[in-house]
Design brief:
CATH topology of the domain at 87-215: Trna Endonuclease, Chain: A, domain 1
Number of strands: 10
Shape: globular
CATH class of the domain at 87-215: Alpha Beta
Low-confidence stretches: none
Strand content: 15-25%
Helix content: 40-55%
Oligomer: single chain
Distance between the termini: 36 Å
Strand order of the largest sheet: 4-5-6-8-10
Length: about 280
């Protein structure tokens, strides 16, 4: 009999060990370690167990093996900890675009043809200027529905009618992105495709999503780290340390938030390991 598990959304699905195995291998853990974790979890799960409980157990077992493995596995939770308001999620998205060769600015107010708009991120690459709207969800089961791209599309159309002073004196918007830490509904994706909007979410686009971008650039947020408390992560975010790899060149920030020399050593070790692409 197949084991039924309960997702964060409340949906009941079959337990898929292959899916869990894939996410565990993505953490950097060896095949032997992953098989051992799968064996232990397989002996512990029961009908109706939640995906959250399975995640917590897998995270705990990975952490015993290596902090950096657990930190990679912790990416989605790390993104959620960039809240609750989402201001630091906007900075994280700006970092992603910067890594891809864009010049970025955050939190600008621009006058459109009809009304003014507060824009989360604006990015420029060559002659292309991109408006990026960020939709942050603190609840894991929340999704961005079609109302979001409808609303953002209307704002983009209002803004692209005018020239703006951003990177030069006469800048015009040419593309629009919407980024979320969770997922888009199928209607939201369909509308975006039809209207020429670009979407970025936890699992979309399939091969260039938040889940997969770190495979290339290792841009894990500092909130993924397992050697820091939530309060310490929040202090680093306030100091504009958004990415784990930024700690490597700014170790003084760890001393500034009150960490001892031994803890600083452990945090930097995890940050270095996490910043090595696998």
């Amino acid at each position: 009999m197949k084991i039924k598990i309960v997702k964060n959304s409340g949906d009941v699905v079959d337990f898929d060990p292959e899916k869990l195995k894939k996410s565990l291998l993505k953490s950097g853990a060896s095949q032997i370690v992953v098989e051992d974790i799968l064996h232990k979890i397989g002996n512990e799960i029961y009908q109706g167990i939640s995906t959250k409980q399975i995640y917590k157990r897998a995270f705990s077992l990975l952490k015993k093996e290596a902090n950096s493995h657990a930190a990679r596995y912790n990416l989605r939770e790390g993104l959620r900890l960039l809240g609750p308001a989402g201001f630091f999620f906007e900075k994280y998205i700006a970092r992603l675009f910067t890594a891809e060769g864009y010049i970025t600015v955050t939190n600008l107010i621009l006058q459109g043809k009809c009304v003014s708009h507060e824009i989360d991120v604006i990015a420029k690459s060559k002659d292309v200027i991109v408006m990026i709207e960020c939709k942050f969800h603190s609840r894991r089961e929340a999704s961005s529905d079609v109302k979001i791209p409808l609303y953002v599309f209307s704002r983009f159309n209002d803004l692209k009618e005018k020239q703006h002073v951003i990177f030069s004196l006469k800048d015009t918007m040419s593309k629009c992105w919407i980024a979320t830490n969770n997922r888009f509904t199928s209607d939201a994706i369909d509308f975006a495709k039809c209207s020429g909007l670009n979407l970025l979410s936890w699992d979309y686009p399939k091969n260039n999503s938040l889940k997969t971008k770190n495979d290339i650039d290792c841009l894990y947020p500092v909130t993924c780290l397992t050697t820091l408390s939530i309060a310490e992560k929040d202090k680093l975010l306030v100091l504009d340390i958004i990415l784990a790899k930024e700690l490597i060149s700014n170790p003084d920030k760890l001393e500034r938030i009150g960490l001892s020399s031994s803890r600083i050593k452990n945090v930097l070790k995890e940050a270095r390991e996490l910043s090595k692409c696998i």
